[in-house]
Amino acid sequence: MERPSLEINLPDTHEEGKLYVVDSLNNLNKLNVCSDRPQHVVDEEETTGGTGENTAGSNIRNQSLFFVTFILTLIISLALVSFVIFLIIQTRNKMDQLSSRLISEKKTIEELKKMNNMILKHLNQSGIKE
């Protein structure tokens, strides 16, 4: 004869236990709401504008508000990252322009030095002859 296994799958049982506790709490909450029905209905109509919305509608509204906020945050983050990338590219282009300008000015300075040396040589030669 086989004995039934005494092993319990703890993760499944734990999850089922959570669901059972949540269901029990929901049932208890419903009982409390039903016992205070006249005052609760008046309070709910005042807060919801008489539409009779329940907490499920409020949860959906909160979830959609969270989703919209999340999407807006992502869009703003994307815009900021794009702006930073744009600034990096612009800075690199300016640095390239500055580097090319410095190289051309260096060549110009070297040419001026050569001309200065030629002029000095010419002045020295003409000063010796006089």
Automatic annotation (TrEMBL):
It comes from the Eukaryota. Keywords: Membrane, Transmembrane, Transmembrane helix. The keyword Ribonucleoprotein does not apply. The chain crosses the membrane at residues 65-89. The gene is Lsmem1. The keyword Mitochondrion does not apply. This is LSME1 protein. InterPro entries: DUF4577.
